[in-house]
Every structure is written in C-alpha cells, then in structure tokens.
Amino acid sequence: MEISTLAMYHCLAFVWYFFVAYSITHVRTEERPSEVFLYGGQWKYLTVLNLVLQAVFYGVSFLADVLRLIKKLRCAKCVISSRDLLFSVLAFPVSTFVSISFWTLYTYNRELVYPKSLDGVIPLWLNHAMHTAVLPFAVLEILATPHRYPAKKKGLILLGFVSFLYISWVLWIYSVTGEWVYPLFALFSPAGLAAFFAGSLAIIVSFYNFGEFLNRMIWDFSSLAQCT
Length: 228
Known about the structure:
This protein is mostly helical. It has helices at residues 3-25, 46-69, 73-109, 124-131, 134-144, 152-177, 190-218, 221-226.
C-alpha cells in the first residue's frame, strides 16, 4: 500500500477509535444502570481500555506515515519500532481476545458479560464498534503493512506483564467494592478463577502467535526487513 494511502487509512482509523472511545466515556450518567460504571468507571472494562489502546496505536501509525512522507527517516524508524511493538504485543492480541471472548460468552449467556440493562444505555452500533469492528480492523492492519515482531521471549513477557496488570486491577476493584467487574467471575471459586485467568492468558498468547504467523505468511522476509 502506498504511504499516502496508508497515512489516510491510519488517520481515519485513529479518528474512528477516538470517536468511539469518546462516545462510551460520555454515556449520560442518569441513564447508567446502578450496577455499572461505579468504582473505576468505564476504565475497569477491557473493552474500553482496548479502545484507548487502538486510538494510541493508530495515532502512532499515522505519525510514522507522516514522518516517512516528509522524509524524516531517522525519526520515522524510531516511531515505526514503537508502532510495531504496540501492534504485535497489544493491539492485535487484545482486539482479537476482546471480540472473540465477548461474543462467545454473549452467545452462551449475555448476562455474564453484557447485561440486558445495557441495551437502553449503549446503542447497538456502539456495541458492535467496541466488540465486533475491532477484529476486522486488526486483521486489516496486518494486510495493509508488514510489522516486525519482537523476539518471542520479549513479546510474551510484555504481554504477560500487561495481562498481570489488568488482572491485578480487576482483583483490586473486587477487594474495594466486593463486586466483580464481570458477573461471570462470581461463578468461580478462588481456584476456579485462577484457572480461568490462566486459561484466558493462554488464549491471548495464542492470538499473539496467530498474529505473528499471519504477518509472516502475508509478508515475505524482505518486506519485514524494510518495515523498520
């Protein structure tokens, strides 16, 4: 894809995610169900954190494209390295996890992740913007431009560290409020919850590996060498 076209795409994606993040963080207080958006606000939900993550990623990607267009190649190389690390370790695996896990649990029992009371608060389009569109956006990014993945050990350590931070945030909220971020967690014993978190980590690691596999399948090694 031409750099100018790529810059336009990344700019539009950034604006889209900024708009979606703005929309969900400005849900009118009087319309919110009493059990939702209390301690921690929207920032306790992985879905909302992912929207911010995607906005940051596409903003960095747009900056890299602009620097390449104006021939600031030394600066562009540094920004591209940050872009690739963000995409490989977080943007792709988290988006894939959010979309697939949400719709799997929603199909099984929506009350576990997205209570029906939210239907009157969050419009249908916003639900799909947060939980559906994130996956094709992630796949399209792999198709649009090659990304250099970090060494496997480094990538998995970073992904594991960020996952640990989010799990710690969820447990902290429970310790303060006595309420789980997602009703699903209340179904588990402590051992069962630990097993669930471990299984979720294994799944998101598999999505990391899948993203790396797709990247290598679509782009040859010469393309990967040129992406920095």
